[in-house]
Amino acid sequence: MLALPLLITACGGSPLPAGSAPCPRIAILADGADLTRFRTGAARDLTALTLDARITGFDARCDYAGGDLRALEVRITPRFEAERGPAAAGRGADLPWFVALSDTADTRILARVAQTTPVTFPPNVQRAEASGRPVQVVVPLPEGRRASDYVVRLSFQLTPEELALNRQRGPR
Question: Could you tell me how far CA 153 lies from the centroid of its own chain?
Answer without folding.
Answer: 6
